[in-house]
Amino acid sequence: MADAVIDLNADLGEGFGRWTLTDDEALLSVVTSANVACGFHAGDPSTMRRVCGWAAERGVRIGAQVSYRDLAGFGRRAMEVPPEELADEVAYQIGALEVFARAAGSRVSYVKPHGALYNRAVADAEQARAVAAGVVRAGELCGGPLPVLGLPGSELLRAAGEAGLPAVAEAFADRAYTAAGTLVPRGRPGAVVHDPEAVLARAVRMARERQVTAESGETVGVRARSLCVHGDTPGAAELAGRLRLALADAGVGIEPFTR
Questions:
Q1: For residue range 165-224, what is the model confidence (pLDDT) as tens digits?
Q2: What mean pLDDT do residues 41-67 have?
Q3: Does residue 259 lie within any of the structural domains?
Q4: 119 within domain boundaries
Q5: DSSP type of residue 59
Q6: How many domains is the chain built from?
Q7: Is the pLDDT of residue 103 over 50?
Q8: Residue 199: in which H helix or E strand, if any?
Q9: Side-chain half-sphere CA neighbours of 196 within 13 A
């Protein structure tokens, strides 16, 4: 029996029309949870339908990856959205994905913000509460309180807990960490770890020891139930497969965090 258990999640459905970004089918053979773009930073109805169908066929949990309304900027640009409006937009995105998840014989099982919204909700309590409010509004449609996936110690997970939503912590094997346990901004050199061997070693250490080495060289605690595997880099599907094998070889069980 595995002495450690981790979920593997990846951002999927991040195409639009004829343009595709990730190898969704390949990644769905590796991950246990799929963060599906809901049309605000990427994705469109047909893409959402296809990815939900593939996920349902493989028993992969479907999560709504909600974002600021920023299709041109891939949801990575800072935006100022009033809290009530943001809550409505979060609920809208979840509801749209739930239609396709149900059509595939599944349901939306959790929510994870994307890009600028994810980073903003780490420290901005007001925006974090707005995201949680949107998740609450969509909860009844989706069969009950939806878990929220986010960075350990973030305002987002704090707001989720206060709103009565399950708060699930995640870690990133291919992203650099600060000494405070937050992600190094993508615009800074070294923010993304490109060495495959380093990514594999970091993933195993995070799952087994709950630790990672920050950019400063300090050891940082990372207590996470899910590990994010980025799918928008060259060779991502192959690396994800190797990562899953490395975790299994290290005695780590791979299981989704939702039913």
A1: 999 999 999 999 999 999 998 889 889 998 999 999 999 999 999 999 999 999 999 999
A2: 97
A3: no
A4: yes
A5: T
A6: 1
A7: yes
A8: helix 196-209
A9: 13
Domain, as residue range, for 147: 4-254
From CA 74, how far away is CA 153, in angstroms rounded?
26
What would the two tokens of residue 120 be?
């903003």
Task: Give the separation between CA 168 and CA 30, rounded to whole angstroms.
Answer: 20
Query: Rounded to an integer, what distance in angstroms lies between the CA atom of residue 134 and that of residue 44?
Result: 20
Other beta carbons within 10 angstroms of residue 254's beta carbon come to 18
Token pair, residue 246, equals 């490395």
pLDDT of residue 2: 55
Radius of gyration of the chain (CA): 17
Cα separation, 163 vs 180, in Å, equals 25
Question: What is the rounded distance in angstroms from the CA atom of residue 210 to the CA atom of residue 222?
Answer: 5
Q: Say if pTM beats, i.e. exceeds, 0.70.
A: yes
Per residue, what are the HEC states of 79-115?
A: CCCCHHHHHHHHHHHHHHHHHHHHHCCCCEEEEEECH
Cβ burial 72-100 (10 Å sphere, 16+ → b, else e): eebbbeeeebeeeebbbbbbbbbbbbbeb
**By CB neighbour count within 10 A (0-12 exposed, 13-18 middle, 19+ buried), where does 158 fall?**
middle
Residue 87 lies in a domain: yes
Q: Write the CATH number for 231.
A: 3.20.20.370
Confidence of residue 1 (pLDDT cuts 50, 70, 90): very low
Q: What SS3 class is residue 47?
A: helix
Phi, psi for residue 49 in degrees, rounded to 5: -65, -45
Does residue 156 sit within a domain? yes
Q: Which long-range contacts (CB under 8 A, 24 or more apart) does 211-219 make?
A: 212/171, 212/177, 213/177, 214/176, 214/177, 214/178, 214/179, 214/181, 215/176, 215/177, 215/178, 215/179, 215/184, 215/190, 216/178, 216/179, 218/179
